[in-house]
Design brief:
heterodimer; A: about 450 residues; mainly alpha; Cytochrome Bc1 Complex, Chain D, domain 2; three-stranded antiparallel β-sheet; B: about 425 residues; alpha+beta; Sulfite Oxidase, Chain A, domain 2; five-stranded mixed β-sheet; five-stranded antiparallel β-sheet; 24 strands; molybdenum (chain B); molybdopterin cofactor binding (chain B); TMAO/DMSO reductase (chain B)
Chain lengths: ~450, ~425
């Protein structure tokens, strides 16, 4: 019997899905389309059931059981459908209010409501000139954005790039791209300098904005910006934006029944990934240039790939490996062992820290562990067996460590180190060698 | 150039078909007993971890490579940067919070619930301040929604760039949110909710990331959320309170939400002018491009998830979503878009949420050009990269929802490619 059940599992899982959905209904947000989709699921499950029915007599029993369950699903569905309107309604909205929250004080609003609108509303009284701006900018901004707002390294460029927006590589800066001056004031005032946001005075912000305009050759060096002349200022790209027009330019054309067969004559690979991305265990990623070219890749037609490229056989370790190993010096071997140990230590890292400033985690820190008295780290709460080992003055040497690491729970009966052990002697040795590199 | 002739190709296919049949019937026989079965294993003998071991569990160490990853050279500093959800290794639709992508403009901040304040001001009868506790007293709802960064797949405008679905499509996550409808708060404050008004929202972090939302959307399905997947939001996703703007670009989902202002026009902040605007080929930018159009991608096989089992039965698994509503259909092609088969939806998608799709198929061992193509309930069909470029050029940065192609070679390795 169990044998048949196994064979039948893939077909049954579709039903399980439908069942799960139906039973979940009471607590779910559902609507007509959910019901419809459930019905589709049921049909699919039904179809699978009937297909399965044909496969073999031996499965009849299972099929019968399934059909019984489907009947239950259908009953549940019908029950759920009759309840529409009483399940998962949106949160109510009271006719009057809930009287929750308190009135905001004007000081509070003044502290937080600092946004500036394109017409200049929201600007505080103040002013600043280009020269002052240059000083503040050099002091507070240039480290990242460059002395002339030209950007350092990867940090944002704030000046130049005029009339490049239609180029292959547009340069979008305050000068070339931003449509409103208000945005410059607002953003610098609330978000810059990076790491000390909100520390500029209104006059400093006016001065910096004046300087950024100057860096963009948009004003002369005697320019003074204030809340009074602010609204008159027109940005270079003020007419460079239009509203989202995908509805007209794309949706109208792309809401059509798609092609399913013989949609193209032939397909060729035109480009391969520029970067291969390595994902090291310690996190992050390394981008490596991909040297592979599109030569040697088959084109495709309705009958499949034009040819089957031969598999690139995985490079076998060269026969000379053994000889090379013999030549490796003792130091290299040692270094290799420590390196291997570092990898093994990944299994310990969740609980143990090593190195400078290592703290106790769920396990004690392991600095100086080789030669250390067992159970001796101050402030760590050991199990009884470790406390006893401390009382007996037992010391961790290579041998003890290896035995402990091989089978922690048999070497130290009752230890709370929840680790099944390092089976390979080479792993034990490597991690001990790695730990030896961390002194007290 | 190594290649086989047509005849040897047929022989090859016949050969691999035989292998496939053998595997399917479960007739592969072992030569020696499997020690994993015949030998007593540690875990079957010694004791495992106790219930006091891990008060809050993390994935088992063997899954330690299923993590968010960043690409260092993309940004000047990891503080104002992005990392990517490991969608290649996830299944179903819900993204665990711990590996859901992060995007910050001034880093993820630690803001205690007790220090949390939410202000509503501007064109309101009563400017109000709410505490975190206040929010939990208002009627709330639960919804699953995807959150996709507008720049997801943005690198790929210029060609196939990064070899991994985590990196090409991983600026997305999908969670079940618990929160108060924004309209409830607007009502509390007596906001002017005429449809020509705007709702400006900003966060408590140093970037504050202000954005303007048109009133119609604000009254529709926007949530002021404080839980995700049943537990508190993670710091990196805006603990204790974030905005959820279903179907719209992630940048609008302001984290550490601290202020809501009703205005009579869009603020046109830095995040809605300098950034999150799309420059088309003619140099003219599109602004207020909020909706994320329908999109899909195959997550397995993909460059980080090669086929390792050889020819035979296999599952092609992927994700589809649309900011306009529900996914109604996903088609999969193995030949770069010449022939399409309709995939099975894992379960009918929620509106504006991720939908899982499967193609349960046989691999004959020959190379494939895998593609997926989503359709939503507006009838929209996910476009090819060519269609998108024709319309917008290559410098739009944002909103790249093109069909992705993986080249799968005879060894089952997959690579990010572009096709004619």
């Amino acid at each position: 019997m169990s044998k048949f059940l196994n064979i039948f599992l893939p077909a049954a899982s579709g039903t399980a899905l439908a069942l799960g959905l139906a039973f979940g209904l009471a607590g779910r947000d559902y609507n007509k389309s959910t019901i419809e989709s459930l019905e589709i699921q049921l049909d699919q499950a039904n179809a699978r059931t009937s297909a399965a029915q044909n496969t073999s007599d031996a499965q009849n029993e299972v099929v019968q059981a399934l059909q019984d369950r489907l009947t239950t699903v259908e009953a549940n569905l019908a029950a759920a459908a009759s309840q529409i309107g009483s399940v998962a309604e949106p949160a109510p909205l009271k006719a009057d209010t809930y009287q929750i929250g308190r009135l905001a004080l004007s000081e509070e609003i003044a502290a937080w409501d600092v946004d500036v609108l394109p017409d200049g509303r929201g600007l505080p009284v103040g002013s600043g000139d280009v020269f002052t701006g240059e000083e503040v900018f050099a002091d507070q901004c240039a480290a990242c954005h460059g002395d002339f707002a030209e950007g350092v390294d990867n940090w944002p460029v704030l000046a130049g790039g005029f009339d490049t927006l239609a180029d292959e590589d547009p340069i979008k800066t305050v000068g070339s791209y931003w449509p409103h001056l208000s945005t410059v004031w607002d953003y610098i005032n609330r978000s810059m300098p990076f790491g000390a946001a909100g520390t500029l005075t209104a006059d400093e912000t006016y001065a910096i904005v004046a300087y950024i305009l100057y860096s963009n050759d948009m004003v002369d060096d005697d320019f003074v910006l204030s809340q009074e002349n602010f609204a008159d200022f027109e940005m270079h790209n003020k007419d460079g934006f239009v509203l989202d027009d995908r509805a007209e330019t794309e949706y109208a054309a792309w809401r059509t029944e798609p092609c399913m067969k013989n949609c193209k004559e032939e397909v060729e690979v035109t480009m391969r990934s520029v970067f291969l991305v390595e994902t090291p265990p310690e996190g992050g990623s390394n981008s490596v240039m991909n040297s592979a070219t599109i030569d040697g890749l088959p084109s495709f037609s309705a009958t499949g790939p034009a040819f089957i490229p031969a598999a690139t056989v995985a490079p076998k370790a060269p026969a000379a490996t053994k000889a090379i190993v013999e030549e490796v010096s003792a130091e290299d071997q040692e270094a290799q062992l420590i390196d291997d140990g570092k990898k093994v230590f990944k299994k310990c890292r969740a609980c143990h820290e090593v190195g400078e400033g290592a703290k106790n985690g769920s396990g004690p820190h392991l600095n100086g562990i080789v030669g250390r008295t067992m159970g001796s780290v101050d402030g760590f709460k050991y199990s009884k067996v470790f406390a006893a080992a401390l009382d007996d003055g037992l010391v961790w040497d290579d041998e003890a460590l290896a035995s402990f690491l091989e089978k922690p729970k048999s070497y130290m009966k009752g230890t709370k180190m929840a680790f099944s052990g390092l089976k390979k002697a080479s792993d034990q040795q490597a991690v001990i060698e790695y730990l030896r590199t961390f002194g007290e | 150039m190594d290649e086989m002739s047509k005849t040897s190709r047929r022989a090859f296919l016949r050969g691999s078909a035989a292998v496939a049949a053998g595997t399917a019937a479960g007739t592969v026989s072992a030569q020696t007993p499997d020690p994993a079965i015949t030998e007593l294993q540690d875990w079957a003998s010694y004791l495992g971890a106790g219930v006091d071991e891990t008060p809050y569990g993390l994935p088992i160490s063997f899954e330690s490579d299923v993590i968010r990853r960043n690409v260092e050279w993309l940004t000047a500093s990891p503080i104002s940067s992005i990392n990517f959800t490991p969608i290649h290794a996830l299944e179903g639709t819900i993204t665990p919070q711990g590996c859901a992508f992060e995007r910050h403009h001034s880093g993820a901040i630690e803001l205690h619930k007790d220090d949390y304040r939410l202000m509503i001001n501007g064109l309101v009868e009563r400017p109000l301040v709410f505490t975190y506790e206040d929010l939990e007293r208002l009627p709330r709802e639960n919804h699953v929604y995807f959150c996709e960064c507008a720049a997801n797949t943005g690198m790929e405008w210029a060609g196939a760039q990064l070899n991994g679905v985590q990196f090409t499509h991983g600026m997305i996550h999908n969670m079940e949110y618990t929160g108060v409808p924004l309209r409830t708060l607007l009502k509390e404050a007596g906001a002017d909710i005429s449809l020509d008004k705007w709702v400006y929202v900003e966060g408590a972090d140093a970037s504050s990331n202000g954005r303007s939302i048109p009133m119609e959307k604000a009254l529709d399905d926007v949530l002021v959320a404080f839980k995700a997947n049943g537990e508190a939001l993670r710091m990196e996703h805006g603990y204790p309170v974030r905005l959820v703007v279903p179907g719209w670009e992630g940048n609008l989902w302001v984290k550490w939400l601290r202020r809501i202002e009703i205005t009579d026009r869009a603020v046109e902040s830095r995040e809605e002018t300098s950034k999150y605007t799309d420059v088309y080929e003619d140099g003219v930018a599109r602004k207020w491009t909020w909706v994320m159009d329908a999109k899909s991608v195959i997550t397995s096989p993909s460059p980080q998830m090669p086929i390792t089992h050889g020819a035979g039965p296999m599952v092609i698994s992927g994700l589809a979503w649309s900011g306009h509503g529900q996914i109604t259909r996903v088609d999969v092609s193995k030949d770069g878009g010449i022939t399409w088969e309709t995939a099975r939806l894992g379960k009918q998608g929620d509106t504006k949420a991720l939908t899982r799709f499967y193609l349960d198929t046989e691999w004959d061992g020959a190379p494939m050009l895998l593609q997926a193509r989503a359709m939503d309930d507006t009838g929209y069909v996910q476009p090819t990269k060519e269609q998108l470029r024709e319309q917008r050029g290559e410098n739009a940065v944002y909103h790249n929802n093109c069909i992705q192609t993986w080249y799968v070679d005879v060894e089952g390795k997959a690579e990010n490619v572009e096709v004619s």
